[in-house]
Amino acid sequence: MALAARPPVLLALWMLVLARSSLKAADGGGWRQTGPGADVALAEERCTVERRSDLTYTEFVQHYAFLRPVILQGLTDNSKFRALCSRESLLATFGDHVVRLSTANTYSYQKVDLPFHQYVEQLLHPQDPASLGNDTLYFFGDNNFTEWASLFQHYSTPPFHLLGTTPAYSFGIAGAGSGVPFHWHGPGFSEVIYGRKHWFLYPPEKTPEFHPNKTTLTWLRDIYPALAPSEKPLECTIQAGEVLYFPDRWWHATLNLDTSVFISTFLG
Q1: Residues forming beta bridges with residue 196, ordered by sequence position
Q2: Rounded CA gap, 147 and 71, in Å?
Q3: Which helix (H) or strand (E) holds 256?
Q4: Distances 229 to 74, 233, 234, 251, 255 between C-alpha atoms, Å
Q5: Among residues 23, 24, 17, which one has the least CA distance to residue 39?
Q6: How far apart are CA 58 and CA 28, in angstroms?
Q7: CA of 54: how far to CAs of 49, 59, 63, 74, 218, in Å?
Q8: pLDDT in tens, 204-224
Q9: Is the Cα torsion angle 143, 147, 148, 153 positive or negative in sign?
Q10: Under 8 Å between Cβ of 35 and 217
Q11: For labelling alongside 148, which of 25, 156, 170, 208 has CA 20 to 30 A away?
Q12: pLDDT for the residue 131
């Protein structure tokens, strides 16, 4: 297929997920919306990040903590936290609380404050493929920990820690097709509570080609198809209940395949 023809094909496949989305995961916590997702265009089965369900702390430190990402399975039970994160429960508990939204670009320049129910009911919709990052508002990271403490106290963090670091939570909810383009920071864990989130990752020494104000969806459409095999990132779809660990200074971009609820534990 000619390279120039790929973006329209990817965009068409992206729209086809509407029919598939409702078949994924019987319990979406009330968050699942009809709208585009990326799993058909993305070939969701493509995963180049190792999954581990039997990892010890010693193995984590020796093989992953400072070297490469890993997906952790079955290490914690967050079923109670998950129930509290349903759409109905969060709106009942936090609907009138003011939340701070960030623009979905690399540097999150703009901040907007508004009631949580307004974000959920009016702004939480599938990503417009034509929108820029600064046109998309994203709820992630700027949480008032005093107001949200009644929720966070029920979250069980991954059992692995790095010496000299202190964990800090960032909680988020985002629409299908949204995400944050490539950026980097310190190490951490990211767990999907509802939905699915696809990650693209590069080691610190391999700076990806990207535009900081264009969405991950645009990067997937315009840049990803032209990458040689040796230039492609590590990538995988993180399912509800799974936790991705990413080491210090690893480049990463995210793409929500569904309306997704997620929480990260940053090790600062």
Answers
A1: 239
A2: 30
A3: strand 251-256
A4: 32, 9, 11, 18, 20
A5: 17
A6: 35
A7: 15, 10, 13, 8, 36
A8: 999 999 988 888 989 998 999
A9: positive
A10: no
A11: 25
A12: 79
